[in-house]
Task: inverse folding
């Protein structure tokens, strides 16, 4: 016969109380803990609350950037140095409701019309600043 190991050995049956007491203490409903304020779902509620706060915080910064951009575009005037989203640099010579006419070459008097939304920045800083540097 092969030798018996500790895993093969079965506990001696006394009166059955010891085994029940151990499982009741381990798995039973009497653990000494009271449910939290939110019950069993507290962790999930806190996690969801964190995501909601993160969403509103990110949305607020995006709205601020959009407001700054709208203000910049509404304040365009003749003589401003602008950079388009394509990187073309020039001087504003005419501003309409939805279009901006920009002079891009002084010697040949080259003018280009841009949609107002296609202007990336105004001023000298807009020329040198790449979009990935602004983030």
Result:
């Amino acid at each position: 016969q092969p030798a018996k190991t500790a895993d093969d050995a079965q506990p001696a049956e006394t009166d059955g109380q010891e085994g029940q007491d151990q499982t009741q203490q381990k798995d039973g409903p009497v653990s000494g803990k009271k449910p939290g304020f939110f019950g069993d779902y507290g962790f999930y509620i806190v996690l969801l609350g964190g995501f909601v706060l993160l969403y509103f915080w990110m949305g607020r910064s995006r709205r601020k950037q959009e407001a700054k951009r709208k203000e910049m575009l509404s304040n365009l005037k003749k003589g401003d140095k602008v950079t388009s989203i394509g990187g073309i640099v020039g001087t504003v010579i005419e501003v309409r409701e939805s279009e901006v006419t920009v002079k891009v070459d002084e010697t040949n008097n080259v003018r280009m019309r841009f949609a107002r939304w296609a202007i990336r920045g105004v001023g000298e800083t807009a020329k040198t600043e790449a979009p990935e540097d602004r983030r």
